[in-house]
Specification:
With about 230 residues, the protein is of the alpha/beta class. A seven-stranded mixed β-sheet has the order 6-7-8-3-9-10-11, sandwiched between helices. A four-stranded antiparallel β-sheet has the order 2-1-4-5, with helices on one face. It contains seven helices and eleven strands. The two termini are about 25 Å apart. The chain is globular. α5 packs parallel to α6.
């Protein structure tokens, strides 16, 4: 569960990026986070991942209070998250299997668990036949599915996808969103940051719209012209 209570965040240069946001994302929800450029979406993601701290208010991520959290606890909180980036961020010198192996070993997984988990996750994202390929040998859509596999590999409670379709064509974007929906239906909380209005409007999920660092709309509905409108 993600909980923000009266959260404000100001950067060192004086820019107030988040303005009094109160927001709860329940376990198992699928939520679109939308808004124009500069609305505060990236700042919220930084709060969710512990990359930034609130100037005021309380932030709790999957049971970890980010407000005043000690640095040694941040890695434990981050293990409850899987993050999918627009630019994939796969290690180019490692195969897809090796990319996943690296992430699992970094989290302390043993060889037997790795041998069982990687094939399962690759089958989930339909990349079993690509496990020995390097990222450069995959299409953009395949690389993004590999990035989703990496986000899933350590069984996170929450998946955060930050503009995950930004480098994909419309068909591949739709395929990726269907994959994220499937992951959500399996029990994971999914938060998707996007500016793609047509994609959001296909799914009828909760839409949280930001503008100038504040939530201006929150509900199940449609995203239209920077604002969310109930269906």
């Amino acid at each position: 569960m993600i909980v923000l209570e009266d959260v404000e965040m100001q950067y060192d240069n004086g820019t107030k990026a988040v303005r009094g946001i109160t927001l709860t994302i329940q376990d198992g929800e699928f939520v679109f986070l939308v808004g124009p450029s500069g609305a505060g979406k990236s700042s919220l993601i930084k709060l969710f991942t512990g990359e930034a701290m609130p100037t005021f208010g309380r932030v709790s991520i999957n049971g970890y209070s980010i407000t005043g959290v000690k640095d040694p606890l941040i890695p434990y909180m981050r293990r409850t998250l899987g993050v999918v980036f627009q630019d994939f961020r796969l290690i180019e010198t490692k195969t897809i299997w090796q990319n996943l192996d690296f992430v699992m070993r970094a989290a302390g997984a043993g060889s037997q668990e790795i041998q069982q988990r990687i094939p399962y996750v690759l089958s989930l994202v339909e990349l079993e036949s690509k496990m020995d390929c390097y990222p450069s040998e995959l299409s953009g859509g395949e690389q993004q599915r590999a990035a989703v596999a990496r986000a899933l590999i350590n069984r996170p409670e929450t998946i955060i996808a930050d503009e995950p379709t930004g480098n994909l064509d419309p068909d591949r974007s739709l395929d990726l969103m269907r994959l994220l929906l499937k992951i959500n239906q399996m029990g994971s909380t999914v938060v998707v940051v996007t500016h793609e209005r047509d994609l959001v409007n296909r799914f009828g999920k909760r839409v949280v719209t930001l503008d100038e660092g504040a939530v201006i709309r929150d509900g199940v509905g449609r995203y239209v012209g920077g604002r969310s409108r109930r269906a």
